[in-house]
Amino acid sequence: MKDTIKYVGLDVSKEKIAVAIADEGRDEPRYWGMIPTRWNQLES
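That's the IS110 family transposase sequence above. Prediction below.
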């Protein structure tokens, strides 16, 4: 099994956090989605 590196980018604002994921190499990052900025929801 080959190990791969994943990079996670977070764009944080007061109301939401946008999440993107990129594999190692030169491929384009993938937009994963938005999550609300509520600490109780981030813990789950």
